Amino acid sequence: MNTASISTIIVVVLVALVAAAAVVWASVHRKRQSLRLHQRYGGEYDQTVLRLGSQSKADAELRKREVRVAKLKIKPLTTPEATRFDLAWSALQGRFVDNPSGAVTEADTLVREVMTARGYQMSDFESRAADISVDHPGVVDGYRAAQAIALKNSRGEADTEELRMAIVHYRALFSELLQVREAPVTEGPKAKLAVHS
User: Fold this and answer.
1) Torsion angle of alpha carbons 125, 130, 132, 133, nearest 10°?
2) CB 163 within 8 A of CB 153
3) What are the helix (H) ranges across 43-188?
4) SS3 string of 88-127?
5) According to a count of CB atoms within 10 Å of the terminal CB, is the N or C end of the chain lower?
6) Higher model confidence: residue 133 or residue 36?
7) What's the pTM?
8) Which pLDDT score is estimated for 188?
């Protein structure tokens, strides 16, 4: 064997090793990314896999959501905004007994208003739910359930127990959205966040 043949064999073996290492690295990276997304999104991850038919498509969709929401200017509410929304919620909840159907319609509207005040985009429902899932994955299933009941309600088909469940689901999301910017603490110029209740 001459030197050129040995050099060619060495180059081919090195290229094969680099290619194998790249494949292993890509596989490990995909698995880590999937695990991170599954841990972050929980049930929403599983639903996205079912809806799209594959884990890789679900991973890509959830990463797109994160990029889209990162471009939004999501901000906490001011204390007066949070107080106003909290009072509005208390009032609509008080009207539930006399008008459960109207209270569900109001709850849907109020949740949208809070989302708008926080900086979420108000496009179609699925886009809103997808955006909410990035920061609030634990309540997005409930939001979807509340929306389904609200649609059923708009057709006059929802019973009182379903309407009550819609209010419960809307309240869970509403509570998570009520983050407020507190007055700066004397320790420095950074504002702290708190949940207003």
Assistant:
1) 140
2) yes
3) 43-52, 55-71, 79-94, 100-118, 125-135, 140-154, 160-177
4) HHHHHHHCCCCCHHHHHHHHHHHHHHHHHHHCCCCCCHHH
5) N
6) 133
7) 0.74
8) 44
